[in-house]
Amino acid sequence: MRINNDLILPDTHPSLRTKCVDIELPINNEDKELLLSMLEYVHDSHDPELKEKYNLRGAVGLAAPQIGVHKKMIAICISYEDDEDLTLALVNPKVISHSQQPAYLASGESCLSVADDVAGYVPRFARITIKGFDLLLNKEITMRLSGYEAIVIQHEIDHLSGILYYDHINKNDPYANIENAVVIE
């Protein structure tokens, strides 16, 4: 199954506010195929020709509830000009520890499910340690992440709990100073 923009649910859909359930390991073939399709979407969305051909929007991550599946699965593909891409297909990911120091993207966050970006700073943890089953490595992993990568993972893991990025934005002052925060340009 190829996922495209027509299958991405809008933030008004109840699926995006539903808490997801853990997936029993070993992962079954149906869930494997779905997670690989999610990863294919994210990966292919970086290629202008494939974006147009398959009706994709540029993305670095996709969570299962965004396509109406209430299982703990996320796909991440962050491309770097001078370095190897960060590509993850995670089952049951969770943050197991984090820094006290906050961080946020100076430009704010966006989401495939949110048609009109909501402006403001989204406070996240500057450094996190995550644990989950990596489908690509076919094993349980623990990873330490910081900066942009940590923010992307937290954004996707939030989806598994029915949380959208704009839930974190200060409603009274979207650009309020976040004390001691690492600002990621």
Keywords:
185 residues, 3-stranded mixed sheet, Peptide Deformylase, alpha+beta
What Rg do the Cα atoms give?
A: 16 Å
**What is the ordering of alpha helices and beta strands?**
HHEEEEEEEHE
For this structure, what is the CATH class? Alpha Beta
The main pleated sheet reads as:
5 strands, antiparallel
What is the β-strand count? Answer: 8
Label the CATH architecture.
Answer: Alpha-Beta Complex
Please count the helical segments. 3
Considering DSSP H and I runs of 4 or more, what fraction of the residues is helical? 10-25%
The N- to C-terminal Cα distance equals 36 Å
Pick out the low-confidence regions: none
Give the integer mean of the pLDDT values: 96
Helical/strand content category? alpha+beta
**Percent range for β-strand residues:** 25-35%
What is the CATH homology-level superfamily? Peptide deformylase
What is the fold named in CATH at topology level?
A: Peptide Deformylase
Please explain how this structure is put together.
The protein is an alpha+beta fold and 185 residues long. The protein has a single domain (5-184), classed as Peptide deformylase (Peptide Deformylase, Alpha-Beta Complex), CATH 3.90.45. Helix content is 19%, strand content 25%. It is built from three helices and eight strands. It has helices at 29-44, 48-54, 147-159; strands spanning 61-63, 73-78, 86-98, 102-105, 124-125, 127-134, 139-146, 182-184. It has a five-stranded antiparallel sheet. A hairpin with a 7-residue loop joins strand 2 (73-78) and strand 3. It is globular. The chain starts with 28 loop residues before the first helix and ends with a strand. The relative contact order is 0.19. The mean pLDDT is 96.
